[in-house]
Amino acid sequence: MIKLIVGLGNPGAEYEATRHNAGFWLVDQLARQAGTTLRVESRFHGLAARARLWDQEIWLLKPSTFMNRSGLSVVSLARFYKILPDEILVAHDEMDLPPGTVKLKRGGGSGGHNGLKDISAHLTTPEYWRLRIGVGHPRNQNAASGREEVVNFVLKPPRREEQQAIDESIERCLDPLALLARGESERAMMALHSGR
């Protein structure tokens, strides 16, 4: 069962449309679906809302710390409401997946993602759920893929066709997330990964 869905991103208007904010886009979509508004919750270092989704109460959270400090926000809300790591889903941008692809997994490494590194450190475990939203990689755009290019890449908006693919993938994962929220993780992964 999922009790908290966290979207990763960077706060501020200048980052709103960047690839690194794909997790925020998912949480915004869920808030719209639930008809709720995320509000500033300083004790949780972010924007939060208790939403009614899929006949369940689920917290939605967008940390207002920068990406590499996301763990503080996640652990503050999780501790306050006694939410266990395996009841948390973190939605984040994933450069190893092309735009339009979404993958779900529990646990594992951070894959170099600073938001996941910080969350794992704060929760003292990597055993939480991750929704990996594909945003592509600069090497796939005939660009040099040095560290600087990677950083610049995620801090830029996707091209129009990439944005459309990302938006469609977020829409497509809503039904599988309903299964995950009810504790049907195998069915959720099958539905998401098969594209049904």
From TrEMBL:
Question: Which family is this sequence assigned to?
Answer: Belongs to the PTH family.
Marked site positions, Discriminates between blocked and unblocked aminoacyl-tRNA: 10
- Please name the GO terms that the record assigns under molecular function: hydrolase activity
Reaction(s) this enzyme catalyzes, per UniProt: an N-acyl-L-alpha-aminoacyl-tRNA + H2O = an N-acyl-L-amino acid + a tRNA + H(+)
Q: What is this protein called?
A: Peptidyl-tRNA hydrolase
The enzyme's E.C. designation: 3.1.1.29
Keywords annotated in UniProt: Cytoplasm, Hydrolase, RNA-binding, tRNA-binding
Record-annotated residues binding tRNA?
15, 66, 68, 114
Its function, per the record, reads: Catalyzes the release of premature peptidyl moieties from peptidyl-tRNA molecules trapped in stalled 50S ribosomal subunits, and thus maintains levels of free tRNAs and 50S ribosomes.
Subunit comment: Monomer.
Q: What is its main location?
A: cytoplasm
Q: What is the lineage of its organism?
A: Bacteria, Pseudomonadati, Pseudomonadota, Betaproteobacteria, Burkholderiales
Catalytic residues in the record: 20
Name where it's found.
Cytoplasm
Q: Which SUPFAM superfamilies match?
A: Peptidyl-tRNA hydrolase-like
- Annotated site, Stabilizes the basic form of H active site to accept a proton, chain positions: 93
